[in-house]
């Protein structure tokens, strides 16, 4: 029995919406899901429909609606302790974070999705599609090896549910791998992968197993080969038609037409096409338009311009690698912190010292920390920092979005601190910073960094129409016998925009 078969009502509608999404017709799936939500009262049915609706909005690229949709889905899933729903939600959330250019949050959702799906006891069709969507998320975020592993898991689980392996061909994973190789200078490697995709297309045509939503992917693989000077027998233009209403399909069709124009010996026309219609950086990576410009210039004989465009494409690819390296360093730091916790249970063993929402130390931990600092005769700058606009966030967007803002601010504060500084969530939207050995000048510099870091966050995507800022005030402990309470009061009284 499949996961959907266990539901009491609306099963046929949910299956129909699922098939439409799989075929790349999310716009048609949305009203079906909305109708189920309007009529359904069962918590599990509503959770499933809300998660699928969140996925449909991601497919359609409706970024401004993602925060609200995810909040509703996450709240519903919390009420239904089901690992499949958690895994599917986090897989979609990783894709949503990718659309919002938030790599850190996307990676967190990838890990959570993988753990949740691995805990699903049944090997049914819905779980197989959950692994498929996780594979897509891995691929879009640049984790190509993990994407291939996840899609193999989808095929294995799908086989247990009676699904043919071809259902989970997922050519988009290998296409993104191919263009990533080209962006990093390995054009031969790119062509090898593109040839494999072409050969796969021939096999699937012979068995009539091609998914409609894959048409544009195969078409782009053929067109990209042609742009690199390697003609193919299959007609790329034919495959670039149809394929659904997703942002991915739209952008692949446009870029595929650019590639075919290059192959037809019209590089100037191809450049005009590239400039006329912007494409999403999330589909094939930000370097892809720049790489196509380089191919255009090379085809036109302007090798200086081709070199410059290639260098720009490579720089964009390197920026992504740098982000992944930063994430790796953060992961190692977190692991070392966990090991320190295990080695020193008397210091960290009380779970009541941690704020469960942000993962930061809480008020009690702050008091313990400052007591120890004062007992050693040390002094420190103490800052009180709160969020400007937080009340409006909760009123306009709901508590879940408020929680997301708190988590984002916690990350901002943690990033700008020195090693050895202390950050705690004190209460509500109020955070306290302790800078051992620091004086007013260093506190002012930290305040400047906090304000700059908060200003560059993309709050418009997370809470559209609601500006977010920080206000901070500073004082000192350990000076003239001043304790924590007096320092906090003085710091709160001196708060101003950071």
UniProtKB/TrEMBL annotation:
Entry's EC annotation: 2.7.7.65
GO molecular function: diguanylate cyclase activity; DNA binding
GGDEF domain segment(s): 378-498
Entries under SMART domains matching the protein: GGDEF
Gene3D superfamilies: 3.30.70.270, Tetratricopeptide repeat domain (1.25.40.10)
Signal peptide interval: none
CDD domains the record matches: GGDEF (cd01949)
Name of protein: GGDEF domain-containing protein
Transmembrane region(s): none
InterPro entries from the UniProt entry: Diguanylate_Cyclase (IPR050469), GGDEF_dom (IPR000160), Nucleotide_cyclase (IPR029787), Rev_trsase/Diguanyl_cyclase (IPR043128), TPR-like_helical_dom_sf (IPR011990)
Coiled-coil regions listed in the entry: none
Entry keywords, A to Z: DNA-binding, Nucleotidyltransferase, Transferase
Catalytic class of the enzyme: transferase
């Amino acid at each position: 029995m499949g996961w959907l078969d266990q539901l009491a009502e609306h099963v046929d509608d949910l299956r129909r919406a699922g098939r439409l999404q799989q075929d790349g017709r999310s716009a048609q799936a949305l009203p079906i899901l909305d109708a189920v939500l309007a009529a359904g009262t069962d918590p599990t049915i509503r959770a499933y429909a809300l998660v699928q609706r969140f996925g449909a909005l991601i497919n359609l690229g409706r970024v401004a609606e993602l925060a609200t949709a995810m909040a509703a889905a996450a709240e519903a899933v919390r009420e239904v302790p089901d690992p499949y729903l958690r895994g599917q939600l986090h897989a979609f959330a990783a894709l949503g974070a990718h659309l919002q250019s938030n790599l850190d949050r996307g990676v967190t959702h990838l890990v959570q999705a993988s753990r949740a799906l691995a805990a699903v006891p049944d090997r049914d069709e819905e779980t197989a599609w959950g692994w498929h969507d996780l594979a897509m998320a891995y691929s879009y975020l640049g984790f190509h090896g993990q994407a291939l592993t996840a899609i193999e898991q989808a095929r294995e689980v799908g086989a247990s549910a009676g699904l043919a392996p071809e259902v989970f061909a997922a050519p988009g994973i290998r296409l993104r791998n191919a263009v990533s190789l080209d962006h990093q200078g390995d054009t031969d490697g790119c062509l090898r992968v593109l040839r494999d995709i072409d050969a796969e297309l021939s096999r699937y045509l012979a068995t009539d197993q091609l998914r409609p939503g894959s048409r544009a992917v195969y078409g782009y693989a053929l067109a990209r080969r042609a742009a690199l000077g390697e003609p193919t027998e299959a007609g790329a233009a034919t495959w670039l038609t149809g394929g659904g209403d997703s942002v991915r399909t739209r952008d692949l069709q446009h870029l595929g037409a650019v590639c075919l124009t290059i192959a037809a010996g019209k590089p100037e026309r191809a450049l005009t096409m590239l400039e006329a219609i912007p494409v999403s950086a999330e589909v094939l990576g930000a370097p892809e338009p720049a790489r196509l410009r380089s191919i255009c210039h090379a085809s036109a004989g302007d090798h200086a311009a081709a070199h410059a465009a290639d260098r720009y494409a490579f720089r964009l690819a390197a920026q992504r690698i740098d982000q992944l390296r930063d994430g790796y360093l953060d992961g190692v730091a977190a692991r070392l912190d966990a090991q320190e916790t295990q080695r020193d249970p008397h210091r960290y063993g009380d779970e009541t010292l941690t704020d469960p929402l942000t993962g930061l130390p809480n008020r009690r931990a702050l008091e313990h920390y400052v007591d120890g600092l004062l007992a050693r005769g040390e002094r420190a700058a103490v800052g009180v920092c709160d969020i400007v606009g937080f009340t409006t966030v909760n009123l306009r967007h709901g508590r879940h979005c408020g929680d997301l803002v708190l988590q984002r601010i916690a990350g901002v504060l943690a990033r700008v601190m020195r090693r050895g500084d202390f950050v705690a969530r004190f209460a509500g939207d109020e955070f306290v910073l302790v800078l051992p050995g620091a004086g007013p000048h260093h506190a002012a510099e930290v305040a400047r960094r906090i304000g700059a870091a908060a200003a560059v966050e993309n709050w418009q995507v997370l809470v559209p129409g609601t500006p977010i800022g920080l206000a901070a005030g500073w004082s000192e402990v350990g000076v003239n016998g001043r304790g924590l309470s007096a320092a906090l009061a003085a710091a709160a009284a001196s708060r101003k925009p950071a």
